Amino acid sequence: MFYYLAEYLMDRSTGTSWESTLSGLRLFHYITFRSAGAAITALLLSLWLGPKIIEWLKELSFGQNYRDRAEEAGNLTGRNPRKMGTPTMGGLLIVTTLNVTTLLWAQWNALVILTLLSVVVLAGLGFYDDYMKISKASGGGAKSHIKIYVQTILALFIGLYLWRLPTTTKLVTEIMVPFYKYPVLSGVGGVGLILTVLTIVGSSNAVNLTDGLDGLAIGCTLIVSFVFLILTYLAGNLRAAEYLQIPYVSGAGELTVFCAAMVGAGMGFLWYNCHPAQVFMGDTGSLALGGALGIVAVLIHQPLVLIIAGGVFVMEALSVILQRGYFRYTKRRFGTGRRLFLMAPIHHHFEKKNWAETQVVVRFYILCVLCAVVALSSLKIR
Predict the structure, then answer these.
(1) Where are the alpha helices (DSSP H) in the chain?
(2) Residue 109 and residue 36 in contact, taking contact as beta carbons nearer than 8 Å
(3) For the CA atoms of 25, 29, 35, 36, what is the dihedral angle to 10 degrees?
(4) Distance separating alpha carbons of residues 358 and 96, to the nearest angstrom
(5) Cis amide leading into 303 (omega within 30)
(6) What CA–CA distances, in Å, run from 328 to 65, 73, 335, 338?
(7) What are the angstrom distances between the C-alpha of 162 and each of 81, 171, 178?
(8) What angle (nearest 5°) sits at the alpha carbon of residue 16, between those of residues 15 and 20?
């Protein structure tokens, strides 16, 4: 909106005495300026809205008054009394701030609108899941297959939309891998569509699984968002993309504003979500943020880089898959299910090893930063 307003004012002032006065509005042409504005706006908006939304959630009794399934399975009772009753659905704060800020500072191209609409859909899915947990004494949320269906349909829509458009078809029909300059496969729309679905659905659920400790999911999301802030800027800049020999995607630069808004909104939410948390993001936030990262990765033709940058999310998801798979295998083989970890997702494994909650979170932050550095190194090591 600010970009279009600046354009309008400069056009109207051309040839008038106001032309030189309003010449500073040319700053809105620069993605870097608008990205900085988006990050600051999202941060301030989150800090301002945070207490209001937290109080509103308390008034509606939208608190976590049920035992988390992971806590129940692992008997993590030591920290449960403090967490019981803490407002959830805090993802409403993140998604609202993210969407409003992006609309204010970005140019509204197809990539931006597609990403924002997808975030709203996933936030709605997460809201439904959170509400089902709150409304049931057992804390049972939406059926897992329902969530997978909705995520898959959304991802298929995005993949087919990109595939059908001549300007974006290569995002699906060509497969890029980190540390290599050229597509490893070309003309493989079916393979690309499957990769698109796996990236979006996998990322959405991986962040959801990571959301189990105060500040863990949002902090790691912040770090990965910063990586994609850099990648989207480079992918949308023709000269930079040619120099680094990475895929150039017309219009992807505006996703830099989106990523900056996600960083700002995330920092604002972390202010209230850090230990001891005043609010949880719930599935409302985690499904939306994870999906957003997956969608951005697809839109800049770097879906596999997300596996590196989001290494912590991958580790969390794999720990659950391996734990369940090994348990079922050993139960069939030996009659008794065995575990690879003391508890899954893996952040609970370290809690069971008597790591303090804050120790787990900070150490996972460090791992996430290392993964981010490796992901960014793929820009030059090609």
Answers:
(1) 2-13, 31-59, 69-74, 80-83, 91-105, 110-135, 144-164, 170-173, 189-210, 216-235, 238-244, 254-273, 282-299, 305-309, 311-334, 346-352, 357-377
(2) no
(3) -40
(4) 28
(5) no
(6) 31, 16, 10, 8
(7) 47, 7, 21
(8) 90
**Closest by CA position to 306, among listed 370, 377, 372, 240:** 372
- For the chain, the maximum distance between any two Cα atoms, rounded to a whole number of angstroms, is 86
Residue with tokens 């791992």: 367
The Cα–Cα gap between 334 and 355 comes to: 32
What's the one-letter identity of residue 155? A
339-340-341-347 Cα dihedral, nearest 10 degrees: -120
Quote the pTM value.
0.94
**Helix (H, G, I), strand (E, B), or coil: what is residue 175?**
strand
**Amino acid at the residue 76:** L
Integer CA distances (angstroms), 85 to 61, 67, 70, 134, in order: 8, 10, 17, 10
Q: Where are the domains of the chain?
A: 31-308
pLDDT in tens, 12-32: 888 888 888 888 889 999 999
Q: pLDDT by residue (tens digit) across 274-298?
A: 999 999 999 999 999 999 999 999 9
The secondary structure of residue 260, as a DSSP letter, is: H
Q: What's the CA gap between 64 and 290, in Å, rounded? A: 21
Nearest CA-CA partner of 258 in 41, 39, 5: 39
What are the pLDDT digits (tens) for 298-317?
999 999 999 999 999 999 99
- Token digits of residue 163: 């595939």
